[in-house]
Amino acid sequence: MTRIGVLGGTFNPVHLGHLRAAEEVREGQALDEMLLVPAAVPPHKDATGIAPAHHRLRMLELAIAGRPGLRAARLELDRPGPSYSIDTLRALRGEIGDRRLVFAVGWDAFREIGTWKEHTAIFATCDVVVVTRPPGPMRLTIEDIPVAAKEAFCYDPSSESFRHASGHVLSLQRITALDISAAAIRAHVAAGRSIGFLVPAAVETYIEAHRLYRPGDVTR
Known about the structure:
The chain has 220 residues and is an alpha/beta fold. The chain has a single domain (3-179), classed as HUPs (Rossmann fold). The protein is 30% helix and 20% strand. It is built from 7 helices and 8 strands. An 8-stranded mixed β-sheet has the order 3-2-1-4-5-8-7-6, with helices on both faces. Helix 2 packs antiparallel against helix 7 (201-209). The model has no long low-confidence stretch (mean pLDDT 94).
């Protein structure tokens, strides 16, 4: 594999919106493999209502079974402490050397990236693709880049992207609009409503079998 993508998140639970984003970024960036990396300890979220990490990883594995080019990775489950993206990206960079590494991040998360641990180092470690759905922005502007990182970028009008001093690229990719959220899925489950066609069938079965996201759900 010469070109690797990373899509991290809580995946609580994984749904069709996540999977479609991973597939479109993999194709749009001509990647050989897209890693879906569940956060063991999300540093920016309240742990209340988050299913144990091993359940979230297993649901990812079930969701992408038989889908070439997508792989669930337990990188953050095997590392103690909060699941910081820069730590994951550095570990991957150490493994793959100078091969292309692409970090995919949603628009809402990107708007908060200035609060992340060592966020300026992320741009120096890999290419960054900001994923947005209609009616999200059509392009990135210099004002969208965190203040501490702005000086390291120059705009490339031919590709409508920003090139970092390290040579890595920051770009925006618009993807199919699927109005699905993990919060809504959890609310459906808690209310006893169907989540069919919102998550893969195997994930729906797993949630039911392990009684996840119900009042008094499992915590192990």
